[in-house]
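Researcher: Next sequence.
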Amino acid sequence: MSPLMSTSADKQMVDQGNPGKGAGPAPAKGIGRAVSGGVSWMMLNTAVSRSAGLLSQIALGYLLTAEDFGIAAQAIAFGAILQVMRDGGARRVLIQRGQKEYPSLRGVIFWISAIFNLMTAGLMVSLAPVAASYYNEPQVEVMLYIFATVLPLSTFSSMLSAKLAIDLRFRSIAIVRAMSATLRATLIVVFALLGFGPLSFVLPMPIVAIFDGICFYILVREHPWKLSPQFSRWPVLLKSTGWVILGTLATAAYNQGDYIVLGSIVATGVLGVYYFAYQLSKQVIILLMYNLQVVLMPALSRLNDEPERQRAAALKAARILMLLAAPTSLAIVCIIHPLEDFLWRGRWAEAVLPVMVLGAVLPLNILSVIPKTLVISTGRFRLWSCLMLIDAAGVMTAAGIGGYLTTDRAGLEFFDGEALDPFGIALAIGLYNCFSVTILSRIALRSVGLRLRQLLVSTAPAYAITIAVSIVVVALDRTVFSGLTSLDQLFLAAWLFGGSLLVFLPIALHDDVGTLIDIIPGPLRPLAAATARRRPGGGAEFRALKSKRKKGAAPSGLDDLD
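Model: Next structure:
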């Protein structure tokens, strides 16, 4: 049984492997086992994508300027807002309807998606000159033209990957996504080396879209474009997708709205520093949240008839994900100061404080994505849309306030006369995230029969331990280690942070660490298990766990969700 969703015997049979042509879901594994494997593979995808993105950003820190990052932020934000109509919201509806309705919906959903993607691409092309005029930046227009080509090209990968998600074939999705992330990160650096500047961020997009389409077609081997559009069904389906489109619009505004607002308030260089900091600090959290939704939404949708099991699965997923998200996000907080000095020699010094603020608060997003995923899984698209609209408005307002608090505009200064921007922007966004988790998550949880207190109790220990360790490490870095070289500081900060967590987390969160070890991808599990053996009492527990695995039994502590 899955560490995240194990209960009584599973009723649904799924496949998470890579069957050949024409193969359907193998009747060998239940939902819980598939979700466990899915989380495992998505963790591996996150690690690969994070590594590729980090290496790419290190290189781009040398090759591009703050102004280049600022222009990229402007174009990508504008494009992301426009592409909210992508798929017409049909993909989410298709996944939410599940296996039973997939055969009858796949053709009509594909054609709805194709038409909406073509319309959105046309809208983006027509508004590209407007965006360039708004930002007073000609390169934004060219970038949006390139961005527009991605929408029709992504129709194939979007629909075919939906089939894999419905069948809970998360291994296949994870492998393709990891390869795509690596390809995109590599191409961005290549184009930057060739001197394309901010265009380097968008030129890989159509190439990656074609790559995704080919990969997912090889895995699924379906031809939904050959099926009838069934226009008579469009009114009913579009009525269902209306709230999804609105929610997607709000999601895009939440993710990109700060860049749009800041583009008209602060200098392009300031926006570039903030964009650089946000990209550096958010990569793990964004990947975790995306992969969480890829795995949990179709799985939780299958449990709509078992609400108690569904709620318990969500809480357990939140505990494990916070145990993973907090250390990976706060690690950058501890090492960013010596890392920046070692790699870029002060070139991105202004990004250090924003990275620390964002890295500290971004794990809290796990507390909001779990309730929202539950809301979507139960088909409450209207509530989800309203919550996302409030969230988007809050982020954009916070960005506006943070952007205004600069030396030039508000006369406010930070340490040693430094301007509040871009630190003020990051601080405002971070404070809003705290508000969002407290208020909006409470509303979402109440709609599915949960309380915020339950979610906080599940996730607070991992976050509290990690933030406490981070504070100590940062304090030591700024005082005791200040006279050392940047490389020595980097090594000591990483060693203290990682070593402290390897001691305290297994002691305080014994069962959750065991669960996390059980779902770690196979190639990495021996390393994690070796760590478990080294802590007090860990050896006996590991031997018991290994013995049960040999006998085919579920690992200790995984027989239920509590």
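Model: The chain has one domain: 13-520. The two ends are 14 Å apart (CA to CA).
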